[in-house]
Design brief:
With about 350 residues, the chain is an alpha/beta fold. It has helices spanning about 40-45, 95, 130-135, 145, 150-160, 180-190, 200-210, 225-230, 250-255, 295-305, 325-330; strands spanning about 1-10, 10-15, 30-35, 60-70, 80-85, 85-90, 110, 125, 135, 170-175, 195-200, 215-220, 235-240, 255-265, 285-290, 315-320, 340-345. The structure holds nicotinamide-adenine-dinucleotide (NAD) and zinc ion (2 copies).
Amino acid sequence: MKALTYIEHGKFALMDKPKPTILDPRDAVVRVTLGSICTSDLHIKHGSVPRAVPGITVGHEMVGVVEEVGSAVTTVRPGDRVTVNVETFCGECFFCRHGFVNNCTDPNGGWALGCRIDGGQAEFVRVPYADQGLNKIPDSVSDEQALLVGDVLATGFWAARISEITPDDTVLIIGAGPTGLCTLMCVLLKNPKRIIVCEKDPARIAFVHEHYPEVLTCTPDECEAFTLANSDHGGADVVLEVAGAKDTFRLAWTCARPNAIVTVVALYDEPQTLPLPDMYGKNLTFKTGGVDGCDCAEILRLIEQGKIDTTPLITHRYKLEDIEEAYRVFENKLDGVIKVAVEPKNKNSYRLGQR
Ligand SMILES: NC(=O)c1ccc[n+]([C@@H]2O[C@H](COP(=O)([O-])OP(=O)(O)OC[C@H]3O[C@@H](n4cnc5c(N)ncnc54)[C@H](O)[C@@H]3O)[C@@H](O)[C@H]2O)c1
Ligand SMILES: [Zn+2]
Ligand SMILES: [Zn+2]
C-alpha cells in the first residue's frame, strides 16, 4: 500500500509498504477512506517533535472502515465506518478512568499514531486499543462531516468543556486556524453572551464573518481595547488561546478580567513567561494541556443532530497519490486553505445517500 513516510528532518515521501496486520488482540486494522493533514504533521516534518520516529507513516486525522479486528475487540466489527482517535489510551489506568486520556500510562499512551507508530496518511492503519480509539459513524454522517472528530474537533470540544463557560460570559478566542474554528463551534454550543475572535489573517476573519455572523472579530493590535469595550467586567470572562504565536500568551491574560479562566490550547515553539508581578491581584486560573480526546461519541451525536458542522473548513481535496501537493498548499497556507481532505486511491469515501 501507499504510505506517506517521515524520512528525515524536512522530508516526507510516499512509499510502498506492507499492509498493517493485527499485532495485539485489542488492535483493529482500518481501511482509510479519508484523511487530513494537521499542523502537528508539519511540526514532525520540521523536526520539532523529537519523539517522532523516522520511518513511520505519518497522519493522525482520518476516518475509515474496519477491515479486521483482534480477538479482544468488542465495540466494532469489520465493515463498521469509524472515526480514529488521535490519542491511544487503554481505558483502564488511573488517568483514563478520570478522563485524562492524554496522560494514559500505556507505553503508547497519548499521541502515538503517526508519530511513534504508523499513522493514517496511507491506505490502511493499525489502531491499538480499538475499543477506545474507534467510534462508529452514524449512517447519516458523511466521511467529510466526521473527518475532524478525532483530532482538531476533539481539541475544540475539550477546550470549550474545561473552560467553564456560562451564559453571562464574554468569551475571547485568540486564533481562527482549524483548531480555533473548531473551538469556536464548540464554544457556540455553550451559548455565551458574546464571543470575540481575534485573528491576524483577514481571510480567516472574513471566514468567521461569513459562517458565524453573530461573532465579533478583531485584530491582535486592537484586541485589548476591543475586548475591554465589548465586555461587562473589564475584560473577557473566559479566554481561549489557540494561536500559539510569539505574543499571544501575553495577549490572552492581559485581555482577561480579574478571576477569569484562561485556557491555553496552543503549543509554543519557545518557553513562555508567566510574569506574576504584572498580573498580581488578577487572580487568574490557567488551564493547559494536550487534548483529552475522549468525547468522540458525543461529538458524533452533535454532528448527527446538525449542531456541529466542520465541512466548511475542508477547503481543498486531493488523492493520496497527490498528498505532497496537498502538503505544499497546507504548509504555505496557499489559496485560502483551512483543511485538506485526502482520499486513498480507489477507496471512495462515504458520501450521504450512498447506502
Ligand atoms: N493542546 C492540544 O492538544 C492541541 C491540539 C491541536 C492544536 N493545538 C495547537 O493549537 C494551535 C492552533 O492550531 P491550528 O491547527 O489552528 O494552527 P494554525 O497555525 O493554522 O492557526 C493559528 C492561527 O492563529 C493566527 N494568529 C497568528 N498570530 C496571531 C496573533 N498574534 N493574534 C491572533 N491570531 C494569530 C494565525 O493567523 C492562524 O490562523 C497551535 O499552537 C497548535 O499546536 C493544540
Ligand atoms: Zn493533529
Ligand atoms: Zn490508560
